[in-house]
Each structure stands twice: as C-alpha cells, then as structure tokens.
Design a protein that fits this description.
This protein is an alpha/beta fold. It contains 13 helices and 12 strands. The strands form 2 sheets. Strands 1, 2, 3, 4, 5, 8, 9, 10, 11 and 12 form a 10-stranded mixed β-sheet that branches. A two-stranded antiparallel ribbon has the order 6-7. Strand 3, helix 7 and strand 4 form a beta-alpha-beta unit. The radius of gyration is 20 Å and the shape is globular.
Length: 412
C-alpha cells in the first residue's frame, strides 16, 4: 500500500531524486558484465513483486552476444523537443501528407536535437557517444511504427511512420562513419510499404518487415532464449518472442509516433515494441490487450505488458536513443493527421531522449494538453520507473515545465 500511495502522489508531485532506491537508479549492466548485471535487474524486479520466483533468473547469454550498453540513469535526463514550422506544408486535404515534408529541414531538426541532447558539436562525437564501441559489422536496429499499413503499396492518409526522420538518422550516422549496410529499419509485425522504403536516401540500409514487402522478412526462429518474453501475470501464460534481429543487433533506436491510441490511452515508445513481438493474439485472458485497457476489468496499474516487454535485455540493454516523430501526430491510433490547436497546425516536431520513460512522459503531456488524457495514461510509466527503466514525471511542456526531467524546447 505504501508503494501505491507513493505512485499516486507522483501524479501531481515530482519526487526528489534522492528518494529513489539504488535498484531503480543505479542498475548498471555493461557488456562484459552482462550476466551479473542482468541478475541485478531481475532481482530488483523480483523484490518489487513484479516477477514470479520461477522466472526471476534469465538464462545466461552466450559470449557472442554483444551487449555494449548499461542501464544507466542520469540525475536529470534530457528530453529535447525541436520544433520547425517549415518541416511540413500539408493543407490537410490535398494528396498524401507524406509528400509535404521537407527533408532538409528534418535533417537540421535532428542534428540540432542530437547536439542539444549530447552537448557535442559534431556528428562524429554524437554517434561515438550514442554507439559506444561501434565498428563495421555491428548492427543498429531502428524500430519504426507502421501499424496502419495494410499492403505493400499502401496509399491511404492514416498516420504511419515517415521516411524523412529515418533518412535524417541514417544520413547523420553515415556521415559519422557508420556503414549504411549496418543499419536495419524494421517493423516486425507489419508491412513496410514501397512509398516508405523507395524514398530512402541510403540504399544499403536494410528495411525489414513481417510480410516481405521490403528488403527482407523479419524472422522469429527463437535464436536465443534472451528473446523470450514471459509475463508475470498469472493469467498470461503464453511466452512471446522478440524478432531475431534484436538479438543480432548491437544497438537499438526507437522511433514512435506522437499519437493517442484507443485500447491503451497512448501509443508511444513503449507500445511501439508491440511491433517487435511474434504474436499479440491469444484468447481471453492470455491476450495482452485487455491488460493495457484501463476500461477493462483485467487492467491494473500494478501490471503492464508494455513494461515487461521493454524490460527485455534486447530492448532495455540496447536502446541508445528514442526519437519521437511528431511531424504530424494523430488523435487516435488510426486517425488521419489534423491540425493541432497547441501548435497552430501540424506539430512539426521531433523529440529526442536517451531515457525511454522520460520521453514518453513528455509525449503524454503534449497529448494531454491537446486532447486530454486520463491519469491512467501514465500508469505504465510510473511502473517502468519502478522497474529501473527510466525517470517518471508528469509535467507541463507549455508552462511550468519539469523538475526531474531536463526538458529543452528548441525552435528553429
């Protein structure tokens, strides 16, 4: 009960960083020390009652697995919001909205955001920080959101990932010395349409989807036990599996879209990894969707499949950056972009952070300011902080700002 009372207070009051436990603030898992570090993270979650004893110890990773990162949280993690009115020019009715994005402006937005985020003045320095230990052959996976794509030649105006932020990322990495063939852009549960991958600016970057529309098809061959996702809820008995490419990748960049959902209040960075799983189906109580729906009797603030998926080491240990695509955004999961009151049109924004919890918090706040959100929209983020995955704060990006997060608004 004390934990729940503290969580409820987080809705309205920022918690001083000194009150956080060593478990949630200092879980440090390095490449060579992976096995010991993973035990610390799982033990922490076990102490919090989130993982049954039978699942508390993951299987040891083999030496060939490359885990270069540490689950390392910062006293005041940065969330950078870059806004450029010239990024898009769609009139909300003519043609496909994706044809009205200025690649050069998006490139400038990303570069400015990376500099602000890292404090470094060159793309070489930025990516040396974000991709520690990179050398040719080590893969960088970029998870995009094409949840609404229904065919290889999809051509509707429903919100989906745009190639321009991806091009900006790949251009920046290649400029810094990353080999384009080491970059994998994927959505392992959906199709990547031609109008997306045919407009890529680095032809050697690989596009990977579920149905073979792009360069190759995502596989789920269970190549390593670390890809298994087992849920702690007693009714969710089916093990799910992450796509094999997340084991083979050394680094991961998450690229959600700024939008509300329907089943879950929002679909942002954490929910984007529903698209990294082999299956989200299942009958009745074994289906993950009721457990993310605050209107369902099976929902509880104490459990979220989103958190347990994102706690998997192939996600938590490899995510170096989250880039929120807010060039258009949307009011629901399958909506067509529409003008935002708070932006006076399209949001024309990118958000960047190294803290996956902090950036989802800010994106939630932007959605709340525009369309309103119930407090339950933040439940998974408070739980994610308990799991040691990042820093939670509910704040006001248009007013008082934040105390625990270092929120930086940059207008170009």
């Amino acid at each position: 009960m004390e934990d729940m009372d503290r969580i409820k207070r987080l809705r309205v009051n920022a918690v001083d960083s000194s009150s956080e436990t060593d478990v949630s603030r200092r879980v440090f898992l390095g490449g060579a020390a992976w096995a010991a570090g993973c035990a610390v993270l799982w033990a922490a979650n076990r102490i919090l009652g989130r993982i049954p004893a039978a699942r508390a110890q993951p299987e040891e990773l083999t030496p060939q697995a490359y885990f270069p990162l540490a689950v390392k949280r910062y006293p005041q993690p940065k969330v950078v919001h870059v806004h450029a009115a010239a990024a898009t020019s769609w009139d909300f009715q003519t043609g496909w909205y994706g044809e009205y994005v200025d690649q050069s402006v998006v490139n400038e937005m990303l570069e400015r955001g990376l500099v602000e985020l890292t404090g470094l003045g060159s793309v070489e320095g930025v990516w040396a920080m974000l991709l520690p230990g990179y050398s040719s052959g080590k893969k960088i996976a970029i998870k995009v959101n094409l949840n609404n794509c229904r065919s290889c030649d999809d051509s509707d105006n429903v919100i989906d990932a745009l190639i321009e932020p991806v091009n900006a990322l790949t251009n920046s990495m290649v400029q810094a010395g990353v080999q384009a063939e080491d970059i994998w852009i994927y959505d392992a549960s959906r199709r990547i349409p031609a109008r997306f991958y045919e407009r890529r600016e680095n032809q050697q970057a690989r596009h990977i989807d579920r149905f073979g529309c792009a360069d190759q098809t995502a596989t789920f061959n269970h190549v390593h036990p670390s890809l298994r996702v087992s849920f702690s809820h007693p009714q969710m008995v089916t093990d799910r599996w992450l796509t094999d490419l997340l084991y083979d990748a050394s680094y991961l960049i998450n690229m959600p879209i700024l939008k509300r959902h329907g089943t879950h209040p929002v679909t942002l960075g954490f929910k984007n990894h529903f698209g990294s799983l082999d299956s989200l189906g299942g009958a009745a109580d074994d289906n993950p969707h009721p457990y993310i729906n605050p209107q369902d009797d099976r929902y509880s603030a104490d459990f979220s499949p989103l958190v347990e998926i994102n706690a998997n080491p192939n996600i938590a240990q490899k995510t170096v950056l989250t880039v929120g695509d807010a060039l258009f955004g949307a009011s629901s999961v399958g909506a067509t972009p529409a003008p935002w009151t708070s932006f006076g049109g399209s949001p024309n924004s990118l958000l960047l952070s190294r803290d996956p919890v902090g950036i989802d918090c800010v994106m939630c706040d932007l959605l709340r300011a525009e369309w309103g959100l119930d407090d339950a929209a933040y439940d998974y983020l408070m739980l994610a902080e308990q799991w040691g995955l990042g820093t939670f704060e509910m704040g006001d990006p248009w007013g008082g700002g934040y105390n625990r997060l270092d929120y930086r608004y940059v207008k170009l």
